[in-house]
């Protein structure tokens, strides 16, 4: 059975596609290679995937009318929809990119799912940012999510609501996953783990917002992939029973996080220890759109799939730094020397 992975040249999509290929599935990877961050990194991820015979890359913008039509004949049975415009801070300056990829794009995937006969399941990415100004920790899927503090968060919540409508009207099995700050090899240059590490090696100052006191439920990529695959294999039943997140249609929502928030300044201390480099820190106030803390209640996912995150932050950071130092920096310096 063929799996369509959108955003396959992105951080999480790359790892999911790789894991699906490793367990013998045929994967169609769709990506537009948007220039939000280093397109060379996205190309490098896609090149890694293309080494597998069962991987087929489609370069297209799924939010454009008709973009998904050529996929109709490819026998897609399951979809992992991870392509999106991410980033909380970027959504303050560039709201239109979120409207395009996250709203028009999500609707295009729902329409594609609706018109794909025999589609077994579509899993899609939401975000911990939907909890916005909520005060009660940890965040649970039953909590209200009516106060997003960034447009990014508002588009992710809107994706969940559009999905609920499609599950209700067309009985399409859908699962939304609220990811909590994912990190690991082949990660994202706009996120703290990458940008701090890059700055440490370059001897550049590191900007710590809110004194580094923000709490994040940093989640290692291997744990995220294990959770996505476990969920993909369990489409919500169309049985009228109440699903996590409150739906009676075949639509479930889960948090997927490490269930252990850590201060950003402690993350930096781990990176310093692992690289053997000392940070030069610039302290800045909290940024608009930022949340003070994220902390996932993962009990719903644990009940449904047995999911438990297996990677403590120190272990994941050691793995991250090894990749950044030995794979990514080596690769960049060999490119630099021709
Ligand atoms: P990413 O930016 O690395 O990957 C997203 C990919 O989607 C990119 O390769 C991009 O080129 C592609 N894309 C964007 N718009 C597209 C379009 N219109 N058509 C085709 N491709 C398009 O991000 P990621 O970290 O891998 O995130 C994957 C998903 O998880 C996203 O939906 C993101 O919002 C969500 N998420 C991620 C995190 C995290 O910590 N990484 C946290 C919460 C939610």
What can you see in these coordinates?
The structure is a single chain. The chain is an alpha/beta fold. It has helices at residues 11-22, 39-49, 90-93, 95-114, 151-170, 192-202, 221-232, 264-275, 299-305, 313-336, and strands spanning 2-6, 26-31, 55-59, 76-81, 121-127, 174-179, 182-183, 206-209, 215-216, 219-220, 251-256, 262-263, 281-284. The chain has a single domain, classed as NAD(P)-binding Rossmann-like Domain (Rossmann fold, 3-Layer(aba) Sandwich), CATH 3.40.50. It has ten helices and 13 strands. It has a seven-stranded parallel sheet, with helices on both faces. Helix 1 crosses helix 7 (221-232).
Quick summary:
With 338 residues, the protein is an alpha/beta fold. The chain has ten helices and 13 strands.
Beta-strand portion reads: 15-25%
**CATH structural fold name:** Rossmann fold
Rg from alpha-carbon coordinates: 19 Å
State the shape. Answer: globular
Q: How many runs of DSSP E, i.e. beta strands?
A: 13
Structural class by sheet pairing and helices:
alpha/beta
Bound molecules: nicotinamide-adenine-dinucleotide
CATH class type? Alpha Beta
* Count of helical regions: 10
Number of domains: 1
Biggest sheet: strand arrangement: 3-2-1-4-5-6-11
Q: CATH homologous superfamily - what is it?
A: NAD(P)-binding Rossmann-like Domain
- End-to-end CA span: 42 Å
């Amino acid at each position: 059975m063929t799996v369509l992975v959108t955003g396959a040249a992105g951080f999480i999509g790359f790892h999911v596609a790789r894991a699906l290929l490793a367990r013998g599935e045929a994967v169609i990877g769709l990506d537009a290679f948007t220039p939000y961050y280093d397109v060379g990194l996205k190309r490098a991820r896609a090149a890694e995937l293309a080494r597998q015979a069962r991987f087929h890359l489609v370069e297209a913008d799924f939010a454009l009318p008709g973009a998904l039509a050529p996929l109709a004949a490819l026998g897609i049975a399951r979809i992992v929809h991870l392509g999106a415009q991410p980033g909380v801070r970027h959504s303050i300056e560039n709201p239109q990119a979120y409207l395009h990829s996250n709203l028009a794009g999500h609707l295009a995937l729902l329409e594609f799912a609706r018109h794909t006969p025999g589609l077994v399941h579509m899993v899609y990415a939401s975000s911990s940012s939907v909890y916005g100004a909520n005060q009660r920790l940890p965040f649970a899927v039953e909590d209200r999510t009516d106060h997003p503090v960034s447009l990014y968060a508002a588009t992710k919540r809107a994706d969940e609501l559009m999905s609920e409508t499609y599950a209700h009207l067309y009985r399409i099995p859908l699962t939304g996953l609220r990811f909590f700050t994912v990190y690991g090899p082949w990660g994202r240059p706009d996120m703290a783990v990458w940008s701090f590490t890059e700055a440490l090696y370059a001897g550049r100052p590191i900007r710590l917002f809110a004194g580094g006191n923000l709490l994040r439920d940093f989640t290692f990529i291997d744990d995220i992939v294990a959770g996505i695959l476990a969920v993909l294999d369990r489409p919500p039943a169309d049985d009228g029973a109440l699903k996590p997140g409150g739906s009676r249609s075949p639509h479930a929502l889960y948090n997927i996080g490490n269930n252990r928030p850590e201060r950003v300044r402690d993350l930096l201390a781990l990176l310093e220890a692992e690289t053997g480099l000392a940070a030069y820190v610039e302290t800045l106030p909290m940024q608009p759109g930022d949340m003070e803390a994220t902390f996932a209640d993962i009990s719903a996912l644990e009940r449904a799939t047995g999911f438990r995150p297996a990677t403590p932050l120190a272990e994941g950071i050691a793995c991250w730094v090894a990749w950044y130092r030995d794979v990514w920096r080596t690769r960049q310096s060999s490119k630099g020397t021709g």
